[in-house]
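look at this stuff:

>
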Amino acid sequence: MREIHRWQGASGQWYDHGVHPFAQVHCAAANFIMVRRERNGACSPLYIGEAADFHQRFLCDPKRLAALAMGANEIHILLGGASTDRRARIDFDLRRAHPTPLNQRAGSGA
């Protein structure tokens, strides 16, 4: 059984994300969080996003390299985001609850 990490949105809703090594994810529509797992086991979110084609976006996203430079070692994936509106609502909810350095940069387009 793969590890699950629960992230809570600003609304109070919980979202169960599968935990994967940073470079080993192949999936389609998903919400995702680029994460640095700290030595004490805590998860530090570096970037929160969503994509209709996660695999393609992840390969081309400049945030991926920035997250690696910041120590990213996991990617947390919430699958089943077939609806663009649902993925956008989850993305907004999680970003409001977890400010991240790569979502906050001016001009980032995030």
Summary: The first strand starts at residue 4 and ends at 8. Helices lie at 54-60, 62-69, 84-97, 101-104.
